[in-house]
Amino acid sequence: MKNFSNYTDYDRKENLHFESKAVHGALGTEPLTGAVSMPIFQAVTYRHPALGESTGFAYSRLENPTRQELERTMAILEGGIKAFAFSSGQAANMAVFSLLNPGDHVLLSDDIYGGTFRIIGDVFGKYGIEHSYVEMDDLDAVKAAIKPNTKMFFVETPTNPMMKVADIAALSEIAKSVDALMVVDNTFLTPYFQNPLKLGADIVTHSSTKYLGGHNDTLSGIVVVKDNEEIAEKIHIHIKSHGSQLAPMDCWLLLRGIKTLPVRMDRHNENAKKVAEWLRTQPKVKKVYYVGFEDHKDYATTIKQTRGFGGMISFTVDSFETVQKILRNVDMIMFAESLGGTETLITYPTTQTHEDTPKDVKEKLGITDCFLRMSVGIENVEDIIADLDRAMNS
After folding, report:
1. I need a surface site. Which of 55, 103, 140, 298 has the fewest CB within 10 A?
2. CB-CB contact of 345 with 311 (8 Å)
3. Residues in Cβ contact with 170 at an 8 Å cutoff, skipping those fewer than 6 apart
């Protein structure tokens, strides 16, 4: 792990547990000074020793030491050969969908983040990319939806916001059988709880704005490629050409967030289970969507492929008036978009995260006027429940 000479030699730390990898990253320390926190390299351009010689850095759009440390760290944590840090989760997904060619077809989870719905329909649709939505937890439905030109499966698991769980290993086998790429959005569980590349996926994406950063203070996205150098090079060309890479300060914030990822995810996991169980006892709550319930229809898949349930819960209440009351009266809990931060956030998907999803699609999925999503934070769980109880019942 010690390196006091260059930026080239780093340790993937295969002998360490996840928690230690998250803390120590790739280089871990700045190799020339020994700084234990990788510095924010704000420089845009880098001086060359002589013609034909280089320090490994030339221009920050191409390579930056702070971003390099983040990308190497994420490749280590997800088990891929190369990672790329983008300016947002949307930018990361744009790069992944750019792997498709006009005439190609992509299968997506039917219950998918509204921003992804917008990207594939409004942006890539006009470039001749075909798409279909399918319940990824129904393998027969997936097989039936495959076309001769299907080149990619894009899977959220658990899904946002209905908490459906897809069998990554089984879907990866199906994708491989038709020569399609298997892409998994791992935002909700992070590599601490779920490792899609080890289960057969080709690419992992993250809105690292969420749990990886963990503090609601940086917008960012991550793409990790498993083992295909050609795909990695295509993503590299995309980020180099589009200029959508993450800025040094944001890279540093993300590196700092990752150091505490395991501890935070354990608390999110612990708190969410208690909040979900409490919600089930409430007369005004009609249904709770939480992957940690043993009676969740995909529970067996969750237990098979993950090490935790995460911090996300969705629930339906008895009326729109109850929704209004909760959102007006929460105090410590914040009515806000996004998820995965230290603070507990409650969101109204129908007009926020899934605003661009057609009403009939939302209603079919269950995203109604009485539907709420909660990102359970790391506060004391008794305070979270007390605030929700007061907001809903007093």
Report:
1. 140
2. no
3. 139
Compute the CA torsion angle 233, 234, 237, 243 (nearest 10 deg): -120
With tokens 């501890």, the residue in question is 263
| 35 burial via Cβ count (<10 Å: 0-12, 13-18, 19+) | exposed
Cβ(151)–Cβ(181) under 8 Å?
yes
Known catalytic residues?
A: 61, 113, 185, 210
Determine the Cα–Cα distance for residues 35 and 28; give it in Å rounded to an integer: 9
Residue given tokens 């992804």 in the structure block: 116
Apex 334 CA angle, 278 and 160, nearest 5: 70
- Tokens representing residue 170 in the block: 């089984």
- What stretch of H or E contains 320? helix 320-329
Residue with tokens 């034909």: 52
CB of 315 within 8 A of CB of 277?
Answer: no
Among residues 7, 54, 61, 59, the alpha carbon closest in space to that of 29 is found at: 7
Query: pLDDT of 211-261, one tens digit each?
Result: 999 999 999 999 999 999 999 999 999 999 999 999 999 999 999 999 999
